[in-house]
Amino acid sequence: MAHDAPPEDGWKHSGVRVVPGDQLDDNTPQTPGMNRAAAINFARVGAQKLWAGTVHIHAGAKTGAHHHGPLESVIYVIRGRARMRWGEALEFTAEAGPGDFIYVPPYVPHQEINASSDETLSCVLVRSDSDSVVVNLEIEPAEKPEGVAWIDPIHKS
Fold it and tell me: Where is mean pLDDT largest: 30-34, 63-67, 130-134?
């Protein structure tokens, strides 16, 4: 589409899109121990170069090791305490709290951990492509993953 003229609808339906927080799509690749839900992707809004959504990790839960192929990821912590482990043997670690941003480069093996034993870790996640690439790895994690049920407005306890 040329950028010198507005589309036929004058941007009414092809312009800004609002995706209500209670209408996210959890039909997206998952990793044990966490739940991802898509807000912005190609299927939902026609996004060409971005994927955005939420991640919830319950108190004390840990994901399996994974990476996101060629995609860059940014995680923004809303609530809770995130511990990230990364490296070929998940040997490196750092923590982030509310208001902190985490950058994960392409192909980096990593594990997300809720460092809190009593509070859900809630984050916003943005990736550099509308394709949601998740490669779950067979790395013996430094901290063993724990499967914990995910509860949100769509999935009641």
Answer: 63-67
Tell me, yes or no, if the pTM score tops 0.90: no
**Residue 103 placed within a domain:** yes
Query: Is 8 within a domain?
Result: no
N-term to C-term CA, the chain? 45
Residue 47 within any structural domain of the chain? yes
Helices (H), the chain: 42-45
- CATH number assigned to the domain comprising residue 129: 2.60.120.10
Q: Convert the pLDDT of each residue in 16-34 to its tens digit.
A: 989 998 899 888 877 777 7
**Two structure tokens written together for 4:** 């010198």
Strand-by-strand arrangement of the 135-136 sheet:
92-96, 82-86, 110-114, 66-67, 135-136
